[in-house]
Amino acid sequence: MYGTIARMKARAGSRAAIEAEMVRQAAEESVPGHLGTFVYRSDREPDEYLVSVVFESREAYRANADSPDQAARYRRLRALLAADPEWHDGEVVDAASRLAVSRG
Q: What CATH number belongs to 2-91?
């Protein structure tokens, strides 16, 4: 497995729009090889988000990163941010989950 952890800061007044965009992307987009995404809003810095995205392989991650669809998703999200995200890509060396996440 392979993925990224992104650190991003919301533009003033855009938290609700960022969260809505994240939910929209998760509900409407089907990305080959995508295994999951977790979005955190910081307790200490409420305008800061940490996003963890996991793919089945580095190749699936790169194919998504290089796709026009991902470029469009990124542009929609970037318009809501105060600055470019900070990215930390890497191999997932351990993963354990008991989560059954539902939206609603």
A: 3.30.70.100
